[in-house]
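Hallway conversation turned thread

IA: we were arguing at lunch whether anyone had actually written out Calcium-transporting ATPase 1 end to end. Turns out nobody had. So, for the record, here is the sequence (863 residues) and right after it the C-alpha cells. Reply here if something looks off.
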Amino acid sequence: MKTWYNSSWNEVVKKLKSDFKYGLTEDKVKESREVFGDNKNLNLKNKNFIILFFKHMLKLHCVLAIFISVLLIYINNFKAAVFLCGTTVLFVLLYAFKDYKNENRLNKLRSIAPHKADVVREGKLLTLNSEELVVGDIVYVEKGDIVPADLRIMQCENLKVKESAITGDISLVEKYETKIEDKELLPSDMKNILFKSSFVIDGSAKGIVVAVGENTEIGKMTENLLKENHERTLLEENISNIINFMSKIFILCLVGIGLYAIYGKTSLSQFINLIFIIYLTIVPVHIIFIIDILSFIIRKHMKRAEITIEGLSSMQTLSEINVLLINKVGALTKESMFVSKLFCGENIIDADLENIEENKDNVDRMITIGLLCNDANVDRDGKVYKGDITERAIIEYGRKNFLYKNVLEKEQERIFTVPYDGDKKIKTTLNRIEDKYRANVVGSVDKLLERCTHIMKNGMEVEITLKDILSIRDADLALSKEGLHVISFAYRNFNYEPSVNENIESNLVFVGLMGLNNPLKESAIESIDYCRRLAIKPVIITEDNKIAANSFGKKMGILNQNDMVLSGVEIDNMDDGDIEKVVEKVGIYSKISSKNKWKICREFKRLGYNVAVTGNRFTDLPSFRASKIGIATGKECTQITKNMADIFIKDKNFVKLLSLIDKSRKLIRNINNIIFFNLIISIIEFLSITTISVFFKHISVDFTKILWINFISLMLNSLLIYSQSENIKEHAYDKVYMDKRIFNRFTSGIILYIAYVSILLVAMFAIEKNKEMVAGKESLFAILYISSIIFSFYFIEIKNVIKNKISLLIFILNFILCLLFFRNFYPNYLLSLTKSMWNLKIMIIFLIIEVFLIKFIKGIYIE
C-alpha cells in the first residue's frame, strides 16, 4: 500500500483530487476508474457442475459401463443394464459433487465482501453498490458496517474495528485520523487506515478511498491465495486411475473373447452377457463403493473426537508430511502465562508476595501501569475475557496484590490510547488521576529505554544513568535466557491534559521489568520425541524474542548443534534465495508475520518437503495454500479458516495432532491393503469365471451372485481389515503408493496364491459339473466366498480379531451372510454337500491348503 498513513488526511484528499465536503464529480469518478480500476470484490472462476460430471463420465471405465449398458438393453437384459448404468451414474455424481465442493471452497471468501456503501458525490449522500466505489470517494461508515474499500480516515469518533481477516489481530483495534510518522509499517500498525472487509464494532468514521479491488490489502491477499497452487493428494482420483488401468486390461481381454465367440459360434446374447460378467469381475468398481463407506465411517469417528476432515484424501496427504509448522502457544505450552520474575531498582526478584516488600512502590506502579494499559475485559464475576495471555497474566497478578483492573479504571479514567506500533513496539494510554494526567507505557525493553530520561527507585524519580541502562539490559538478557517473556513499564506525569497529537511517549520514567512464564504442557517434551519418531521435523513459531526462543528450543531439544532461530525482521531483509539456504536449519521462528510464514512454507515446498502448517486466522490461509496440508486449530479459529482448511482440530493439543498423523499412516497403509485385497479377489473372479465360461462353454453366470460377493462379502472383509488399523506395523519412512504402483505388491507368492485359488475354483467346478451344472456353480461361488474370507487374514491376525469385539462381530456376520447367500441362491447346496462327504472332504482339504499357503506367503513377505 502507498504510504497514505504518512500524510495528513488533507494532503491525501488533495493528492486524490477529491473534496472533503462534496466528494468527487461524475467526471472525476470516470477518470479515477480509468486510472485505478474498479472495486471488484472477487473474481472467482469455478468449474460448472455439469462440466465436472462429464469429466468423470468420460473416464474409461465409465464409458465402458455405459457402452455395455446399451448392449444389454439391445438384448433386453434390462435388469443388468439398469444396475450397471445406475451405479456408474451414482459414482460419477459422488465424484463430481466432491470436485464441485473443492472447486467452490474459495467462494466462502465472498462472505467477508461488503455489498453497500454510503458515499458523498457532488455534495449528495448516496448509497451505492460497493463495487461502484473508486479511489477518491468520500465514504461514511458506522457501527455494524463492513468497510467497503481501503480508507484513509479523515474523521472518527470512538472508532473500534475488527480487522482479523486482514491483519490477523483478533482483538478490537482502535483507530484514529492522525498521520503516522513511521516510514515502514505492517498493516496491523496502520491505525489511521480502515481496511476493506474489516468490521466496524463501535463508533463511526468518515474516510477517503485510497485503494480499490485487487489493490486493497484484502484484494492482494486473496489474489495471492488464488495464485498459489495448493497441491492436493486425491485418493479418489488414484483409485479411479487404478480402475481405468484394469479397464485397459478388460479391453485387451475383449479381443480374445471376441475371437473365442467367433470360433465357438457363440450367440450375440451370450457374447454380450459374457462381456458384462467379465467387466464386473476384472473392473473393480465396487472399490469406489467400499472406500466411500469407509470414508463415511472415518469422518463420523473423527467428528466424535472433534476433528473435521474432508475425506480420506486429507488423511492420505497428512500421512505423507515430513515438516510440521506449529505455534508454540497451545501446542507445546499452555494458553496462559503467569508473572514469574521482576526487576526493580537493581535486582531480579521472584514475583512471590514475600519477595516484593522492599520494592513495593515499584511493583505496585508496574502492576498499575499493566492494568491501565490493558485491553482485556473483566466481567462482574471477575472472569477475564478477550485480551491476550500477557494481559490476562497481569490482571491475575494484580489480584494477588489486591489491585483490580475495574477499580483502577474507575479511579483513573482512560482518555485515549496510542496503540502498539510495529516500529515503536510500545503501547500507551493516557489516564486522568484526579486533576492530573499520566501516560502509562508498556512494551519492548530496548524501544522503551530509548524514551526514558528517569528511573523510579524506591518510589522516587531519579535521572537514569548509563549504569542503570546497562543493568536493565543485563536483566532483560538474564530473564530472556530463562525463557521468560519480558515486558518493560514506564510512565510520565502531566499537570495538564495533553492531546493525542502530542508526543507523550518521551521523557519517560522507567519503572521495571516483568518476566512472564508460559508454562509447558506436561506432554511437551514427549511430543517433540514423538514427532521425531514419526520422522517429522518440528518447526516452532513463537512471539518470544530470539534469546528466549533459543533458550526454549534448547530446553525442549528442538535446537540441535546446527539448528538456529530466525526472526521475522531477518526474513524481511532476506531474498528468497537466502531463505532457501537456511530454511532447513531453522528450528524456531521468532515474531514472524503471516507473509513470513507463507514464504517459509513455499521454500520448504520448493525443496521437496511435504509441509503441514497450523493456524486459526484468515491471514494463515496463504500458508495453508502454499503447504501440502493446512490444519485449522483451536476453539477461537475463525469460521472461514475452518472452511478453507483441509483438517480442523478443535483441541490444540500437539500430541493429539501427532496421534492423528500416526493414525493416518496406519489407516492409509490399511486402505492400501483393502484396495490390494479387492484387486486380488477381482483377478481370481476374472480368471476362474472366464476360464469356466470359455472351456466349459458355460456363460450363463447370474451377475447378482457376483454383486453379492463384490458389494457385500468383500465390503465386510474390507471392514474387517479396516477394523484392525491400530494393529498395523507402521514404518515411519515408508511411503504408501495409492496409484498403479500398487501392482508392485504382486510378488511371486501372491501370483502363486492367485493361480492356486483360480485352479481350485475351476477344478471344483469341473468335478461338480459332471454331476450337475448347478452343482458346479454352487461349488464355484462357495469356494470363492470362503476364499475371500480366508485371504483377508493375509493382512490381519486371527488373535487380534478375537480380541476386538467389532472385528469379531464383522467376521461372524460375514459367515452368517455366507449361509444366507446359499439359502437364497442355492437352497439345496448345503444339504447336498453334507450328503456327499467325499466332495466335502476334498473342499475342506483344498481350503486348509489355502490357509497354509497364505500363512507361508505371509511369513515370507510380511514382517
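OS: looked through it. The chain has a mean pLDDT of 85.
IA: good, adding that to the notes. The domain at 4-40+116-220 is CATH 2.70.150.10 (Calcium-transporting ATPase, cytoplasmic transduction domain A).
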